[in-house]
Each structure stands twice: as structure tokens, then as C-alpha cells.
Amino acid sequence: MNFVEELKWRGMIHDMMPGTAEQLQKEMTTAYVGIDPTADSLHIGHLVGVMMLKHLQACGHRPIVLLGGATGMIGDPSGKSQERNLLDEATLRHNQACIQKQLAKFLDFDSHDPNAAILVNNYDWMSKFTFLEFIRNIGKHITVNYMMAKDSVKKRFNGEGDGMSFTEFTYQLVQGYDFLYLNQHYGCKLQMGGSDQWGNITTGTELIRRKTDGEAYALTCPLITKADGGKFGKTEKGNIWLDPERTSPYIFYQFWLNCSDEDSKKYIRIFTMKSKEEIEALEKEHDAAPHLRILQKALGEDITVRVHSREDYEAAVEASNILFGKGTKESLAKLSESMFLSVFEGVPTFHVARSVLEAGISPVELLTGPAAVFASKGEIRRLIKEGGLSINKTKVNEETMLSTEVTINQKYLLVQKGKKNYFVIVIQ
Questions:
Q1: Percent of the chain at pLDDT above 90?
Q2: 49: confidence class by pLDDT, cuts 50, 70, 90
Q3: Taking 90 as the threshold, does the pLDDT of residue 240 lie above it?
Q4: What is the DSSP letter of 292?
Q5: Cβ neighbours of residue 131 closer than 8 Å, sequence gap 6 or more
Q6: 3-class DSSP state for residue 214?
Q7: pLDDT of residue 81
Q8: 210 labelled catalytic
Q9: Of residues 14, 80, 93, 393, which has the active-site annotation?
Q10: Is residue 162 pLDDT above 70, yes or no?
Q11: Which of 35, 168, 293, 397 is the most exposed place for a label (fewest CB within 10 A)?
């Protein structure tokens, strides 16, 4: 497979240095993407770079993931108007261990093939540098004029945010040295990243050229946006993380399921390994019946299974069916507590003492008393008569007796009023 052609049809190339395509066709090439380990999980914004490396490896080349333990202590000014909080080494090492587990779901680190992926941390070499050594051996090769000409620097000097500290100003030089180090120790000839990284990446190619007269190349992908202009991967509650403790598999799946048709056509190319023929067939099927959300479902399945598991994906689909009226009491009973809470997060909640259910209580008494879902007994009786009240996905009548035996996870009751109104009762 031709790596550059593969990225082109997927819409994943923004800029590319002359000679890059030829280098990749000539021989197995080592390329890297940098990730700042500022949290103990990747979020879906990181996946663009990770998928570039995955395609690179699939095309027979060798990927390196560089975790920026050192650069994470500084903070990249690109695309930012404020300086980042600095992290200590213990936090960075913890973050590295967590991120490595997530990366292993995308990249093959363990095979004995010559293109097995490599994970490195720039703290391991930058921490050994003294300031004087760095400015003498590296700093002298790049002029201040060259550094000042970068867009990320110019914007901050022209009034964005609170200006730029010397620490941040040196960032591109530190990142440039990373490329030089990987070039000298791993034969790395290509750095990839988002389009906002072009200035930092080309500083690295320039440093390699000036210091070693060697070959180095740059390739960037477009910054991913949403059709409505919103920031990709951000919701009202923040980032969509890969760690299930930060973003549940259900919320993760729902993010992809709720993408617009326009975004789904873009994302399925970027975030899956499906072939051009497979994607075009899915698009044709989708366009014939957009209401079935075929693209979104295919995208959600592919990436949820890869990041989490087949079981987590199936549970998320089951949970979606429950929320949208297709679930059964059996499917509700199968939900784990964490999945149940994810699905019904934000639903009106009532807390009831366990003793109330241990004694047994009718729906009318429970839902107009300890859990006042209804304002009056007349209102609930009318709904029961019309067959519009369910508890734990089972229709109830006035004679139904509720006890702790019917609770979900020994703790919850799910009240459904009509088709779409849900209430959760927590038994304490």
C-alpha cells in the first residue's frame, strides 16, 4: 500500500514537504508523532495522529510514538493563547504508562517485525542536557529570526493572551531536537502531526539539515473540525476520553452515533481502517435511508470495539435501545451499574429508604409519596389505566407490589412515564 495515497483519499493530508512521497516509496521509513502526556488518558483528538501512525505501519513503515515528558513540562504555544500548567516527573511517568496501554490497541509494539512500533519519552534524553550544553550544541544552529517567523510565535507576540515566556519560546527548539535525536538514534526521517504543528516540525527538519546534512521530511493532517463549526471531540462536559473511567463506553459510542451525516462521511475515513470500497458502499446505503444512521452506526461500532471491546460496544447498543424505547426488562437487568448510570445521567432522580421497599409498596403510593414523580394519585391512576406507566421496562397496574427484589443492581428502579419521560429511584 502507498501511504501517501492512502492518506490522500482519506482526507488526511494538509501539508507535505517535497520529497516525502518519494522517500516513503523508496524504503521502509521510520516516522513519528508526538503526544504530550498531560493526562493519564488520550482523548479522541489524539486519535488523528495515532491513526496516521496506524496507516503508516499497515503500509510497512515503522511508527514511533514520542511522549513529550520534557515538552509536557514546558507547554506548546501552538494554537494556544495561555501558558500551560507544568507537570512533575512522577505524574508524567504515570500518564505514560496509562497512555501506552491505550496505544497498544492501535499499534503493534510487540512483534519482531522490523516495523514494530516504538514508544519513547523525550524526558529520557532532555533531562540529561544541561542548559549550557543545549544552547551551545543545538541553539547555535537555529537563529532567533527563524524562530520569530513561526506563526505560533508571531500570534502570541502580536497580542494573543499574555505574551510568551522564554520557556514557551524555546519549545520549537526542544521539539526540533527531538526530531534530530530520533533521526540519529532510530533513523527517523519523517515527523507527522496536525497542521498547527507545521512550524515546530519544520524547525526539526531544518536542525537536522544544518547539523547533520541529513534528510528529513514533514507531513501534517488538517485539524479536524465539525460541520457546525464546533470543536471536534468536545462536548458540554469536556473531552471524549479513551479511558472508560473518564468517558463511559456508552457516552463514547453515543458521541459517534450523534455525529452529523457530513461529519460521519469525514470521520469514517479518518478513524477507521475500512477500505475505500467499503466506505463508498456504506455511504450509498446511508444516502438511500439517512434516518437509519448507517454511517454513524458503522463508525461507532468500529471505533468503540477498537478502543473498548466488542462486549462494551454491544452493551452500549443495548443501552441505547433501552433509552429509545426498544429495550426489555431482560436487557435492562443486564446493564452494569456504571452503564446504567451513564445512560440515565441527568434524568430526574429520587432517593428512597430501603425500608420502604422491604415492606412492599404499590406504584401509586411510591410515586406520589417517597418518590413524588406524580403530583396526584388521580394523575398516576389515569396513566396506569392507559397502559402508560412502566417500572424497569414492565407495565404496572394498581395491584403491582414493588419490593427490593425488582430493583436493578439491588439499588435502582427505572420509572418510565409515557414513551420518553424517565425517572430514576435510588434505593438507599
A1: 63
A2: very high
A3: yes
A4: G
A5: none
A6: coil
A7: 43
A8: no
A9: 80
A10: no
A11: 397
Q: How far is CA 309 from CA 105, 135, 300, 305, 358, in A?
A: 10, 48, 12, 4, 38
Q: Establish whether 196 is a catalytic residue.
A: yes
Terminal alpha carbon distance of the chain:
59
Instruction: Assess whether 411 carries a catalytic annotation.
Output: no
Contact 169, 74 (CB under 8 A): no
Cβ neighbours of residue 235 closer than 8 Å, sequence gap 6 or more: 255
User: Which residue blocks in 231-309 are alpha helix, DSSP H?
Assistant: 249-257, 261-271, 276-288, 294-307
Each residue of 177-210: pLDDT tens digit? 999 999 999 999 999 999 988 988 998 999 999 9
Q: Would residue 276 show up in a list of annotated catalytic residues for this protein?
A: no
- Catalytic residue, candidates 94, 101, 136, 231: 231
Residue 381 among the catalytic residues: no
One of 14, 105, 234, 381 is an active-site residue; which one?
A: 234
Q: Check if 234 is active-site.
A: yes
Of these residues, 14, 23, 38, 393, which one is catalytic?
38
Please, what is the average pLDDT of the chain?
Answer: 89
Distance of CA 362 to the CA centre of its chain: 45
- Residue where the block lists cell 526530531: 179
Residue type at 256 in one-letter notation: W
Which grid cell is 134? 543545549
The answer to whether residue 231 is catalytic is: yes
* Residue linked to cell 529520557: 124
- Neighbouring C-beta atoms of residue 53, cutoff 10 Å: 22
For the record, the C-alpha cell of 397 comes out as: 397496574
> Is 154 among the catalytic positions?
no
Q: Is 235 designated active site?
A: yes
| Cell numbers given for 15 | 501539508
Quick one: which H or E segment has residue 350? strand 349-352
Cβ pair 392, 408 in contact under 8 A: yes
Q: Which of 235, 274, 381, 417 is catalytic?
A: 235
| Of 56 and 346, more confident | 56
**Active-site annotation holder among 108, 196, 261, 302:** 196
Mapping DSSP to helix (H, G, I), strand (E, B) and coil, where does residue 275 land? coil
Element at 212 (helix H, strand E): helix 198-212
Sheet containing 389-391, strands listed edge to edge, beginning at the edge strand earlier in sequence: 349-352, 421-427, 412-417, 389-391, 394-395
Report the alpha-carbon distance of residue 133 to residue 260 in Å, rounded. 52
- Contacting residues for 69 by C-beta, under 8 A, at least 6 apart: 37, 89, 92, 93, 96, 121, 122, 123, 124, 126
Alpha-carbon gap, residue 112 to 272, rounded angstroms:
25
CA distance 316 to 281: 25
Instruction: Name the active-site residue from 14, 43, 141, 381.
Output: 43
